Amino acid sequence: MRYGIEALNVYAGVAQIPVPALFAGRGLEPDRLTNLMMYNRSVGLPFEDPVTNAVNAAKPIVDALDPADRAAIEVLVTSTESGLDLSKSVASYVHDYLGLSRNCRLLEVKQACYAATGALQLATGYLAAGASPGAKALVIATDVALVDARAGYAEPATGHGAAAVLLSDDPRVLAVDLGAFGCYSYETMDSARPSPYFDIADVDRSLFAYLDCLTNSFADYRSRVDGADFATTFDHLVMHTPFSGLVRAAHRKMMRETGLPAAQAEEDFARRVQPSLVYPAQVGNLCSGSVYLALASLLDHADLGDGARVGLYSYGSGCSSEFFSGVVDSASSAAVATQGIRERLALRRELSFAEYEALLPEALQTLAPQEHRTVDLEPYADFLGGDRPLLVHAGTKDYHRTYEWR
After folding, report:
1. Which of 10, 213, 323, 344 has the fewest C-beta atoms under 10 angstroms from its C-beta?
2. Interatomic CA distance for residues 280 and 294, integer angstroms
């Protein structure tokens, strides 16, 4: 039996701003754009929150299932840094608006940008154990950005949205190599969200922790998989992508440690890594959804032929990391193509810097605990009403959030 990802979809909002426009508006040094390797970043609007992002990512997957397969979803896990309550999980709202069976485990997990991978591995193990034959699990990584001018150079790199992965014994997208993984974790304060109003980050500490965890999680992987070699075992590489420039630096470091000349390392990067960076360069960091956005990018942009092994690296600040692997093929690309991620990204409305700045104050309130709130949807009517209905946050009454389909 094989287990892994049956379906994968990404929702990256309905608005974006060109990164050069954001640099210019903030007065950031344009020379640093090259290292960022980004073109656009998704922007959250005041009617979007972690619930709407999660549902809008997962709904096309759930709707494509027949009733029996939909009822087979026995586990729903939302991974998020953007929790709405200290006890009630985001998953409870998501479960309701996806119309899933009431005979379903609901969980919310948190470990910065790593959490979705931890949930994926635990859910895959549950399915492979055979405790409930034919069961499926749905893991949704969902977050919102809480960044403005205070974030400095992190602001242009921070994305918005969610990635949904359906796990089963029919892994049409990615068959996970069971038992082939490596973990590395320790406590560090490289980034955090100490309040529902802003993020903090120690950029240098985070960069070094990311690189350190890649080296050591792969070393743990290698200890479990005889003969594993970073340069030759994997046909493609997919990594957590806070920004593409960091992935380039991480790849360069690992290839240098294998002794590969710099010129060959660049060719290797273009062949094995670059296809996974097309979408991250248009969206920004999706937190724990980032590595699955990169996987979708690979599947939409690489020629996989009859089959390819992919090495995946997931990192979450604080910190925890994992290197694991799986197998994909041309059918994987076909399965992801049905979600139309490329087309949805192209449909996002472009914001000017002035429009972006004007909506920020209200958008940054999206996680704030308010007893009563009404979200004015009228100013954003042009963003809604497409061919695919979207769930929007309409307001809050007695701390209970309400949502509508638009």
Report:
1. 344
2. 6
CB 217 within 8 Å of CB 206: no
Residue 387 pLDDT class (50, 70, 90 cuts): confident
**Domain residues of the chain, as ranges?**
4-405
The structure tokens listed for 326 are 């799986």
Reported as a pLDDT band with limits 50, 70 and 90, residue 132 is very high
Given a contact cutoff of 8 angstroms between Cβ atoms, the answer to whether 116 and 292 are in contact is: yes
Structure tokens at 257: 């440690």
Mean pLDDT along residues 21-40: 95
User: Is the Cα torsion angle 237, 121, 338, 81 positive or negative in sign?
Assistant: negative
Strands 73-79 and 136-143: parallel
Q: pLDDT, tens digit, for every residue of 219-266?
A: 999 999 999 999 999 999 999 999 999 999 999 999 999 888 888 999
Burial bucket for residue 226 (CB in 10 Å: 0-12, 13-18, 19+): exposed
Structure token pair of residue 397: 């009454």
- The domain defined by 4-405 carries CATH number 3.40.47.10: yes
* Confidence band, pLDDT 50/70/90 cuts, at residue 332: very high
Predicted TM-score of the model (pTM)? 0.98
Three-class secondary structure assignment of the chain: CCCEEEEEEEECCCEEEEHHHHHHHHCCCHHHHHHHCCCEEECCCCCCCHHHHHHHHHHHHHHCCCHHHHHCEEEEEEECCCCCCCCCCHHHHHHHHHCCCCCCEEEEECECECHHHHHHHHHHHHHHHCCCCCCEEEEEEEECCCCCHHHHHHHHHECCEEEEEEEECCCCCEEEEEEEEEEEECCCCCEEEEECCEEEECHHHHHHHHHHHHHHHHHHHHHHCCCCCCCCCCCEEEECCCCHHHHHHHHHHHHHHHCCCHHHHHHHHHHHHHHHHCCHHHHCECHHHHHHHHHHHHHHHCCCCCCEEEEEEEEECCCEEEEEEEEECHHHHHHHHCCCHHHHHHHCEECCHHHHHHHHHHHCCCCCCCCEEECCCHHHHHHCCCCCCCEEEEEEECCEEEEEEC
pLDDT of residue 386: 81
Polymer length of the chain = 406
The CA distance from 237 to 251, in Å, is 9
